[in-house]
Amino acid sequence: MPDMQVLSSSSLLDLWDRGCQLHSIDQGLLALSVAFPETPYQMVADWPLGQRNRALAELRWSWFGPMLEGWASCPKCAEKLEFQLDTRSLTAIEAPGGEPIVVNGRSFRLPISRDVARAASEKDPQSAAVCLLESCRIEEGEGTLSEGELEIVGDRMAEADPLAETRLSLLCPNCGNAWEDSVDIAQFLWADIDARARRLLREVHILGCTYGWSEKKILSLSDRRRAVYLGMAQA
User: Both 156 and 109 in a single domain?
Assistant: First the structure.
């Protein structure tokens, strides 16, 4: 993978401005295309999900630190449970290979972001799963996939690309219910980008009103110097 771009305050605001109205799938791809400017956006969209998620984890670690914190709601008693995920554990997993998956004479490639975006338009989870797998079919077979074949293809894809979906094993401290929940790295990354962008805009507003400086001048300051000026302006 090529070297990752260091994100300046100005670049982060530009990224946020371009992506704040996009779907979370496109927000993740946009962030990757900014982090790896030598890799075209269309190429990133064609990466297998595991390769994309591994890059997103590396990106989140580089820009905001390795520890990802969130919470989940117990499906049994609705108790809120906090969790942490060390994104360094995800970057240690190798990217998937490109070998096709063959089930009953039908060949499938690993899912990419385009397939997920297409399946997201389906309202029914079962229809979405069928749409996703059908999008990955390389060789046309006769008839539609049976439920058993869908399960086999899905299991084979999960084995071939374990980072395609990040799942956490959780245990509710209130009722003892154990369950698994998925973590969308792109959504967490964009939440960090959004929070940082809004913080920067508040700093620009305060320092601009106080000193009459332009946004460009304020963002060109180092974080340390901007923090000192901000402290004096708010004193």
Answer: yes
Torsion, Cα 87 91 23 123, to 10 degrees, reads -90
Buried b (16+ CB within 10 A) or exposed e, 34-72: bbbeeeeeeebbebbbbbbbbbbbbbbbbbbebebebeb
**Are 174 and 77 contacting, i.e. CB atoms less than 8 angstroms apart?**
yes
Tokens found for residue 154:
């899905």
pLDDT digits (tens, 9 = 90+) for 64-84: 999 999 999 999 999 999 999
Rounded to an integer, what distance in angstroms lies between the CA atom of residue 93 and that of residue 53?
10
Looking at every residue in the chain, the average pLDDT score rounds to 91
Structure tokens belonging to residue 152: 């086999």
Other CB atoms within a 10 A radius of the CB of residue 101 amount to 21
| Helix or strand (DSSP H, E) at 178 | strand 178-183
Asked if residue 4 is part of any domain, the answer here is no
Please indicate, yes or no, if residue 51 is contained in any of the structural domains: no
Determine, yes or no, domain membership for 123.
yes
155: containing domain:
101-160
In a domain, 45, yes or no: no
Please tell me the total count of domains within the chain: 2
Is residue 90 a contact partner of residue 53, using CB atoms and an 8 Å limit?
yes
Residues 156 and 203 in one domain: no
**Vertex 106 angle, CA 29 and 163, to 5°:** 35
What are the structure tokens assigned to 52, written together?
A: 């994309």
196-235 tens-digit pLDDT? 999 999 999 999 999 999 999 999 999 999 999 999 999 8
Other CB atoms within 10 A of residue 7 CB: 19
